[in-house]
Design a protein that fits this description.
mainly alpha; 2 domains; 0% strand; Tetracycline Repressor, domain 2; Arc Repressor Mutant, subunit A
């Protein structure tokens, strides 16, 4: 191999290592700090300069897409398993528990499930696919008579917003607290336990709240 070719191979390998180091550092820091983790701290943890980080990921959204695309794909895969469950209520409850447990694995994931990242279309396409699956999961459970008739998909967004706050506040002192919260919430979603509830805020309002959260964090 000619010296110039060897240098090019080495540079490409260095670039690939730096990119992966940045993704690994971002995943770690997002887990501790949430989606607002400073990019300069991510660069420092990855042991690269800020210029190197921005060369690979020119925006917060680009980095978030690299870190979290596989997470949203896991949500889609889990939704497929829920839809395949012969017991519609069990499939619904298992999916809700999966999402709440996923949030418990780190503040970044907890944020991601309740935040619109409008500057990362690839993430939002995955989110829309996950949402469509959720609608189908809930419809099956309602048709079976197990899920309360007034449930709307935005109710799960509200539940995840509440769980994100719980995860943030109990991560150190009571890291399993989300389990009790989820069990209690699921009991309240059973048709047998249903009582009158206030009107839902509507999908548009929930989407505005998620978009505003993304704007606040710099992901628009």
């Amino acid at each position: 191999m000619a010296p110039a070719q060897a240098r090019d191979v080495r540079l490409r390998a260095d670039a690939a290592r730096n990119r992966q180091a940045i993704i690994d550092a971002a995943r770690q820091l997002y887990g501790r700090r949430g989606l607002d983790a400073p990019l300069d701290e991510i660069a420092r943890l990855a042991r690269v300069g800020n210029a190197t980080l921005y060369r690979h990921f020119p925006s917060r959204c680009a980095l978030a897409a690299a870190v979290f695309a596989d997470t949203l794909q896991r949500v889609i895969d889990a939704a497929g398993r829920a839809l395949a469950d012969p017991d519609p209520w069990h499939g619904f409850a298992a999916h809700v528990r999966f999402l709440c447990e996923l949030q418990s694995t780190g503040r970044g994931v907890a944020d991601l499930l309740i935040t619109r990242v409008s500057g990362a279309p690839e993430l939002e396409e995955l989110r829309e696919s996950a949402y469509a699956s959720l609608v189908a999961i809930a419809a099956r459970a309602q048709a079976s008579g197990a899920l309360r008739a007034d449930f709307v998909p935005e109710d799960l967004a509200l539940l995840l917003m509440a769980n994100a706050g719980l995860v943030s506040r109990t991560a150190e002192a009571a890291p399993q607290a989300w389990r009790r919260f989820t069990d209690l919430a699921l009991d309240g979603l059973r048709s047998a336990a249903a009582t009158g509830a206030a009107p839902p805020p509507g999908r548009a309002a929930v989407q505005r709240a998620m978009r505003a959260r993304g704007d606040d964090l710099g992901y628009s």
